[in-house]
Amino acid sequence: MIRDQETLNILLDSIRRFVREQLVPHEQHVADTDEIPPALVAQMRELGLFGLSIPEEYGGLGLTMEEEVLAAFEIARTSPAFRSLFGTNNGIGSQGILIDGTEAQKNAWLPRMASGEIIGSFALTEPGYGSDAGSLTTSAVRDGDDYIINGTKRYITNAPEAGVFTVMARTEADRKGASGVSAFIVERDTPGLSLGKTDKKMGQRGAHTSDVIFENCRVPATSIIGGTPGMGFKTAMKVLDKGRLHISAVCIGVAERMLEDALRYAMERQQFGQPIAEFQLVQAMLADSKTEIYAARSMVLDAARRRDNNEDITTEASCCKLFASEMCGRVADRSVQIHGGAGYVSDYAAERFYRDVRLFRIYEGTSQIQQLVIARHMIKAAESR
Ligand SMILES: Cc1cc2nc3c(=O)[nH]c(=O)nc-3n(C[C@H](O)[C@H](O)[C@H](O)COP(=O)(O)OP(=O)(O)OC[C@H]3O[C@@H](n4cnc5c(N)ncnc54)[C@H](O)[C@@H]3O)c2cc1C
Q1: How far is 223 from 165, CA to CA, in rounded Å?
Q2: What is the reported pTM?
Q3: Residue 131 CA, closest ligand 1 atom number
Q4: Is 364 considered catalytic here?
Q5: If the chain, 385 residues long, is cut into consecutive pieces of 10 residues, what is the mean pLDDT of each piece?
Q6: Which residues line ligand 1 (CB under 6 A)?
Q7: Assign residue 155 a region: left if phi > 0, alpha if psi is -120 to 50, beta otherwise?
């Protein structure tokens, strides 16, 4: 749903300009240094990028899902590491509090996340439980008015930058599955919370992950999102439904950028006395990429509109994440191919993007997990007919 086309156009224009004039020229610097310059972060704050999806009453821009994916298409036309910094505040770091939090929790955290004053992270994955997140073993044991958390979370995006974590922990030790899990809001400075070393990743330098370690970390019972124990996994899944649509939109934006670069290269690079873009086998790679991007874009816009219509989009979000992330991988591969040897060396962005986008098929549910979600929902729907 687009609330006001003119206002949205102004926002999309300013994002487009910021990406083109500020972020793209800094891509290589960020890849070399593994840091986003503070001046760029300040501009991200000014543009409201940390609060795109947080409602206006809490200081954000309150974009609808359709508006948010349109913004994500633009934001993603550069290194994905830039988006990662404000991605958790718009997605997995804030949405649990927004969807299921109490009014006091929303008031305490959302305005600070919307402004970019603090970064929110989402800690679900553990060393032993990734795809099988419902079996997680981080424990939260009741002690008077508090809970004591013990366990380790792995690969947590923005953990080194975060001021607050949404942490999934098992409050019902005797309940093994997802129903024994609660979501806690835990401040970075809480005694007993520490970070592992920053992970060395394949790509997306400038975006950071690390372990988050809880050793007798005491938090008040009031820090359970929504106040009711045992609802945490449901909260996490609602957060991921939305997150998957957002990531799908990001896949499309990056794919558009990679294709634009590949087309430009194909039109400039000469072999056999003519631009390689004139060869039909190269044209096939360009055309297949264009077609797949268009298909993914149409899917994501449709699913976003359905979500704005309050439809249950769990299946559609997984379809989008599966298709868009796999599509993005194919476009990255063709982009390297079109660049030839230049696609394999780091003088060109194709090589960097190829590594950067590999992540999209893994996090927020691997492609295999999306397939399982889609098929399970199909079977369930057929059984209830
Ligand atoms: C850079 C990065 C950032 C991340 N950020 C976060 C974050 O902010 N918060 C967070 O909580 N997590 C985060 N993650 C974790 C991420 O969500 C998990 O890595 C992902 O869900 C996969 O879990 P796993 O790594 O344990 O792989 P595994 O679950 O061990 O999977 C390994 C392989 O087995 C396959 N597989 C597993 N189960 C099945 C099945 N039932 N059927 C078929 N195939 C199956 C998988 O598809 C995969 O191919 C991040 C990961 C990375 C790399």
Answers
A1: 11
A2: 0.97
A3: 29
A4: yes
A5: 96 98 98 97 97 97 97 98 96 95 97 97 97 96 98 98 97 88 97 98 98 98 96 93 95 98 98 98 98 98 97 96 98 98 95 98 97 97 94
A6: 121-125, 130-131, 155-157, 201, 209, 359, 362-366, 368-369, 372
A7: left
